[in-house]
Amino acid sequence: MPLPPTAVSPARVFAELVSSPKDDEPPRAAEGGPFGREVHVNGSAELSAGPDRAKVTVYLRSRKGEAGAARGSVTRRLDYVTQTVRQRGGISENDVTVTKNFSRIENAYKMEAEVCIIFTDFGKMQDTCNHLVEKLDKSVIISSPHFYHTMEAVDTLRRQVCVSAVRSAQQKAQEVCQLFGHSVGKPLLIKEEEVKESEGHLEDHTDNSPDLFSFQQKLQSATIHISSRVFAIFEIKGEKRKKAALIKGN
């Protein structure tokens, strides 16, 4: 799940008030024409999200003098691994890929199998891997989890951070207008000027191999950070109502 927006540097905010255009001449500052009653603001935001997928590979090997013995040894363990993954990990067949390789080396037969598993629930992933190590011991080798983001998750975060930056700009425009007794009208221009993306902030472990990271450090190193800066122009409202009130009072 995306994390709440982190603190961002203050955006540059300015407003320029000039006389209102004629009724048949709308503001055209956004098009490079004469300025109307507008407030110009920059807004920025930053969001972070942890990985939503983890890939684990289970390796099975056997070397025997007879072909049937080598195949049978790997097949029994392979069946147990796939059954455990489905029952304890809640993994569907679409998220499990099995690769087999059978070869002859000198006077022996070698059977190898790899089971690639994609997890979305990291708690179940840990439980499944721990169970396989406990039951199969050294007869299996389990890789460290590789955490990553799906493209859908990254695209969602990009949209969310852009919307947050626009909201920041709108809020600043409202506060500026309130200082002068005005209110914010419709947006005349919204432009995303800059987007930055980075992954992982492990300052104290940059020289270590990823295999030496703890579980939480691996999650942190795979966390994606996206920042967005937007420029927006909003219409300023309020002066006409004040003039009408003054005329009515007189």
List keywords for this structure.
single chain; 250 residues; alpha+beta; Translation Initiation Factor IF3; Alpha-Beta Plaits; 2 domains; 5-stranded antiparallel β-sheet; 4-stranded antiparallel β-sheet; 5 helices; disordered N terminus
Describe the model.
One of its GO terms (molecular function) is kinase activity. Its main location: cytoplasm. The chain has 250 residues and is α+β, with helices and mostly antiparallel strands. Helix content is 34%, strand content 35%. A hairpin with a 2-residue loop joins strand 4 and strand 5. Helix 1 runs antiparallel to helix 2. It is rod-shaped and about 95 Å long.
Q: How many structural domains? A: 2
The major β-sheet equals: 5 strands, antiparallel
How would you classify the helix and strand content by structural class?
alpha+beta
Looking at the structure, the CATH topology of the largest domain is Alpha-Beta Plaits
Q: Could you say which overall geometry the principal axes of the C-alpha atoms support?
A: rod-shaped
Rg value? 30 Å
Topology, number of strands = 9
What's the SSE pattern? EEEHEEHEEHEHEH
Task: Please state roughly what percent of the residues sit in beta strands, choosing from under 5%, 5-15%, 15-25%, 25-35%, 35-45% or over 45%.
Answer: 25-35%
Main location: cytoplasm
Protein name: Interleukin-1 receptor-associated kinase 1-binding protein 1 isoform X1
Keywords: Cytoplasm, Kinase, Nucleus, Receptor, Transferase
Family: Belongs to the IRAK1BP1 family.
